[in-house]
Amino acid sequence: MVLPKAFSEKGYQVPKTWDELISLSNKIADSGTKPWCAGIESGDATGWPATDWLEDLMLRTQTPEVYDQWVTHQIPFNDPKVAEALNKAGEILKNDKFVNGGYGGVKSISTTSFQEGGLPILDNKCFMHRQASFYANQWPEGTKVAEDGDVFAFYFPAVDPSKGEPVLAAGEFTVAFADRPEVQAVQNYLATPEYANSRAKLGNWVSGNRGADLNNFANPIDKLSVQILQDKTKVLRFDGSDLMPSAVGAGTLWKGMVDWINGKDTASTLSTVESSWK
């Protein structure tokens, strides 16, 4: 997430690569402001926002095929490739120079709710916050969410854009409890452009359906997200922890990310998660 007015006032440019993102972060930090704010507290689900960082960096440091191998446990969770991705995330999340704007040091990330994680942007206490598109709904009433507004968003940069720009996504599942024709008809309808367009008009929703009309998405961040999801040049992968066995993806990994934020080293964190995968 970005504070467009402050970006333009300072002359900052939206980073297009990971190196540019780190360079910008250093520049902001050198000016006396923490560039990043974050929060991963979420009740019983505390830790899940940090898994998104790991997934995003797995997609950016490795190939999509390696990402798939990681998700399906064809490579161990403590493989050096996974460690590389987590350490990359740590360049920001475990850097006291970069975080945690408005809240404290690195450890404050684990006690700051994900809903409140980005709010210091509005008080000029940080400039960037990594979250999913739905975070557009977390800003206080009266916040203008637009490219020329109080807050907006930009694509989380690839490490090497020449190798492609990956996209991390999650989604809704339609579950049938009966195989009657009318039940299957509803399921099929939910996958059509007609449904995507009618649902989009209700707001606060995005879709990767290529038949969805951008004009039906009123929220500027929703519109930007749909543009990214519909871009055929980008490689999309589903949220990795959501695809893993729940004991891992919604269990030891969530806890492991909290421990990692609170000071546990990468190798030990990943080995603990690996030992839980049966």
Can you offer a commentary on this structure?
There is one protein chain. 41% of the residues lie in helices and 3% in strands. The mean pLDDT is 95. The protein is globular, with a radius of gyration of 19 Å. Strands 1-2 form a two-stranded parallel sheet. α10 (246-261) packs antiparallel against α11. The protein has two domains: 4-159 and 241-276, Periplasmic binding protein-like II (D-Maltodextrin-Binding Protein, domain 2); 171-238, no CATH class. It has 278 residues and is mainly alpha-helical. The protein has eleven helices and two strands; from the N terminus they run αααααβαααβααα. This is ABC transporter substrate-binding protein. It comes from Phytohabitans rumicis.
- Kindly report the spatial arrangement of strands forming the biggest sheet: 1-2
Give the radius of gyration.
19 Å
User: Mean pLDDT score, rounded?
Assistant: 95
Helix coverage percent: 40-55%
Task: Tally the helices.
Answer: 11
Reported for the largest beta sheet, the result is: 2 strands, parallel
Number of strands: 2
- The percentage of residues in β strands lies in under 5%
Q: Give the class from helix and strand content and strand pairing.
A: mainly alpha
Overall, the morphology is: globular
Count of separate structural domains: 2
The N- and C-terminal alpha carbons lie at a distance of 37 Å
CATH superfamily of the largest domain: Periplasmic binding protein-like II
* CATH structural fold name of the largest domain: D-Maltodextrin-Binding Protein, domain 2
For the record, the CATH class of the largest domain is: Alpha Beta
**SSE ordering:** HHHHHEHHHEHHH
Ranges where pLDDT stays below 50 over 5 or more residues in a row are none
> What is the correct CATH architecture of the largest domain?
3-Layer(aba) Sandwich
